[in-house]
Amino acid sequence: xxxxxxxxxxxxxxxxxxxxxxxxxxxxxxxxxxxxxxxxxxxxxxxxxxxxxxxxxxxxxxxxxxxxxxxxxxxxxxxxxxxxxxxxxxxxxxxxxxxxxxxxxxxxxxxxxxxxxxxxxxxxxxxxxxxxxxxxxxxxxxxxxxxxxxxxxxxxxxxxxxxxxxxxxxxxxxxxxxxxxxxxxxxxxxxxxxxxxxxxxxxxxxxxxxxxxxxxxxxxxxxxxxxxxxxxxxxxxxxxxxxxxxxxxxxxxxxxxxxxxxxxxxxxxxxxxxxxxxxxxxxxxxxxxxxxxxxxxxxxxxxxxxxxxxxxxxxxxxxxxxxxxxxx
Amino acid sequence: xxxxxxxxxxxxxxxxxxxxxxxxxxxxxxxxxxxxxxxxxxxxxxxxxxxxxxxxxxxxxxxxxxxxxxxxxxxxxxxxxxxxxxxxxxxxxxxxxxxxxxxxxxxxxxxxxxxxxxxxxxxxxxxxxxxxxxxxxxxxxxxxxxxxxxxxxxxxxxxxxxxxxxxxxxxxxxxxxxxxxxxxxxxxxxxxxxxxxxxxxxxxxxxxxxxxxxxxxxxxxxxxxxxxxxxxxxxxxxxxxxxxxxxxxxxxxxxxxxxxxxxxxxxxxxxxxxxxxxxxxxxxxxxxxxxxxxxxxxxxxxxxxxxxxxxxxxxxxxxxxxxxxxxx
Amino acid sequence: xxxxxxxxxxxxxxxxxxxxxxxxxxxxxxxxxxxxxxxxxxxxxxxxxxxxxxxxxxxxxxxxxxxxxxxxxxxxxxxxxxxxxxxxxxxxxxxxxxxxxxxxxxxxxxxxxxxxxxxxxxxxxxxxxxxxxxxxxxxxxxxxxxxxxxxxxxxxxxxxxxxxxxxxxxxxxxxxxxxxxxxxxxxxxxxxxxxxxxxxxxxxxxxxxxxxxxxxxxxxxxxxxxxxxxxxxxxxxxxxxxxxxxxxxxxxxxxxxxxxxxxxxxxxxxxxxxxxxxxxxxxxxxxxxxxxxxxxxxxxxxxxxxxxxxxxxxxxxxxxxxxxxxxx
Amino acid sequence: xxxxxxxxxxxxxxxxxxxxxxxxxxxxxxxxxxxxxxxxxxxxxxxxxxxxxxxxxxxxxxxxxxxxxxxxxxxxxxxxxxxxxxxxxxxxxxxxxxxxxxxxxxxxxxxxxxxxxxxxxxxxxxxxxxxxxxxxxxxxxxxxxxxxxxxxxxxxxxxxxxxxxxxxxxxxxxxxxxxxxxxxxxxxxxxxxxxxxxxxxxxxxxxxxxxxxxxxxxxxxxxxxxxxxxxxxxxxxxxxxxxxxxxxxxxxxxxxxxxxxxxxxxxxxxxxxxxxxxxxxxxxxxxxxxxxxxxxxxxxxxxxxxxxxxxxxxxxxxxxxxxxxxxx
Lengths: 328, 328, 328, 328
Prior knowledge:
Chain A is of the alpha/beta class.
């Protein structure tokens, strides 16, 4: 156990995701378990620079394991991207005698941590927490599973009205540049077509597929569209194109939006967050730095932050094939 | 009991709403209870003209009380608006020996029923079923309560991310020309401001209110906007205006959309639908026609369809006052 | 407006119910709106005697409108039932310059308030909050609607497994001595039989009904049993009796238990709590005491606490009739 | 592709689990994709013997991906355990020209399939579907993830009332002889203690742990108890023991029961079921038999049914350690 680490700071940064609170709780409780002090840092890197720290003991995180959002709040910080900003941040941490950081968030968060470590040799461990699941080095980011359940629950509701009226719905879901949410939620919700940035189906083949679907006896259809998809400029233009070229359907659009980021985390995300928080603190106590904890082959493993940022989270080709078979 | 009625047709029409299936089930089971035949008519008035009828016995509606959408499907029919179309419809009903209709839907549905009755002296009873709650003669339409729960559940999720990031969200909800959903869900979700068509707050006072809210210590805000509200041309313009005139907040928009029409109905809507279905059939059996069944002072009462269509469903002024006090 | 009331205490007592927090929030915000001080009293009458008070301003209740349970906690107090205990309580309130009480709970709570008012002429207003809906003077207590949704959601799940296996389930629900939850949730969940204390069906007729249900083609059955029902000594004995006398079904029991008291309140309960909290404070400010606020004919009205306690909350006979028709 | 297989039968057997319908749908759609006929077999092995078969095409499984229970129903069959019963079953399959079976269920189901294959050289592939997750050869059975979400949702509700009243709750969850549900849901719900059959804590240490928990400042507690746990004879005796030896808490019991088997499947379970159904059919078409499809290291892999039955699904020791740290 590293003698040098007596106080750990924990923060959340970037877009919030369900399970952030469960991860914070796990970091805090693991510190308590090892008799390490823990301070909560408010509003991410912004809060480091402002010294917005509060001591957190085991009881301070009670009742948050099932809450969406983040009790430590999140923010994006321009100033931290400058050397001056980071110097201020380092001074604040030194003043508060914080010896190491656990940063909870996505690749922007990890990049900030990595730069900070390089400049000040400050120990940093990352916990991947974003609904987009776009991080290399973990099969699941915290929040992804909950977002999938939120999305299928919404599409189930939309399906009720689609099938009552024989309508075609384009449902836009989040996911930044990757199609993980769209592909998984699309298969889960039984979507007739799934449009993801990794596969440019093309407008002609989309039309063809919708026609085939209609002929096969389907009276209503759901097309799940990843926000990063490039087939149309946006989902509304896609609707216009299909309406102009296909009169069998009454076409509607639904953009699910920010509700995908909120809500009480699923059991999977709570358990994952609990496991990752323990590993993050224990990795710091072993004297290591610059790692992300991740789920690989059902175990919590370490990946260097540099790889986590540079590596690409790839779509599951096999699941893509399953999705095609399911729409037979 | 009316000797003349031996077979009742039941149909759903207009926008679907949670509880339509519970209402269908109630009509079918009540017919079975009184040994009256019942036929389900598919796709509303369109289906009458096409003779798309199927006999329904008590067992045929099992397992649907908790399902969203409508097993009888819904549609809008242009042809039924013509005398020729209605003549065809009447012939189909006569051929099938259907003696009376229970029509489930909103004011468009009731108007169709009323015209049909006038021309052919055909017994018609209406059951109010729409999420908008915009029908005179009932304090609650079937589907309204479920839609409110869906909306507050979504806003609770949006609140998680709004408060994590200190953001201002404009959340657009359904409701056609009235603000019932916005007002009730706004109070239920603890919205900082509620914009409804019945009250034009004006852009200046909206800004003022948001500033006051910020000064009072609120770090994030939810503004619920009824789709029929006229303060901005639409919710995205509203966002632009506020962003241009207020830099304290990062502003986002979420349009909840059609998911508000779907989902498993709440217990309230299932019970209401069960009660209304019984009353609808019993009213026909008493030899009456042209009434809507409605909930008034906790009892199921009759209102003439003409009044139900012409009358106005007014916003609850007292609740508006409560909403202002809640945002103190 | 009463000049005498400058500080109001608010407390929750008895069994907790979803919406208690929304009611607390409404009382606190209404006080703030009228520039009246408000103190939260922890653990009901017990907390009065211990002087466990904390000042509550408008911001102190943020983020609780959608939370189950009660942030002020609840408890039962033996000592408050003695004159000595109440004397101590009165001294504590006087010391803290609390001028009036809003008590949130059921009839036990109201009785405590009434006795306290009688002895010390201390202004008291009650807000009915219990899942059982067993209070005279209001068609709905806060928490009842949420509990109904929780129960139908559970029974929907049990129905999945019942119908997969052709089983008969006895599902015991809460409700103390009345059958409101059982009757409403039973109709909502499409139960084949509903056993409530107000109607002793008798074991013979229950068996007969189950046989008839089986003959009519139902392969599985749900019987909802109110905890206060007297047909069997308890639900497990009921199961044994039916198993001994009917071999068509594989019989199971599910006692839903305390989860019925928890969970995020429905929109209906949040709105009701908001309306009642406003009326409670305004009634005190008008110089009145010893009233309960209640929902009667869709309006918030006053009923004397004495009547609220003595009066009986009766089962809806018409709904009982609807439930019989639904099981045709 | 095996020339011999032209028609596949699919059935569900044993205790039902959420996702069974998604698995059926996947098998049916995959058959359609490969132009193989598919017949649904009702009520498991019982239905084979009775020849209760219905042809299923791609459209016949629409709208079931999100439904709990099993549209094919499930049953336990005594007769199939006899050579005579299996002979009848084989005759029925031959008569209906069914060439292979996909059996969806748990180890009892797999054992039946294995014996049947041995006697008649009939191709059989198994899909693991049970909430208990007690099958060797897959990290997740279909239904496990949904059951975890149902359980944590229930415990979240119980927590509301526990913390309002400073109570200790024993919550009994399913899981047969293993503690997977208890351990995962216990960590997810933030339980203070988790009692599983794999670890006999002993009554003394349980008391000690509860005392320590109380001293550390916790005012309420949730103890999750696996149904297979042996520490007390049952959960009610556990309650009695703790009440007799600890007067700090008001103790209650909640047995969650059969609702754990129902409900709409989570996205995870729907996706898993879709993937497994494809693999099951493709494995048969490759001419293989007697395998179970399972999730291993995020891929769908084959395990011989014999191993799946004999092997032991072990508790995650690392998660047990995490659970201890979380209750610090």
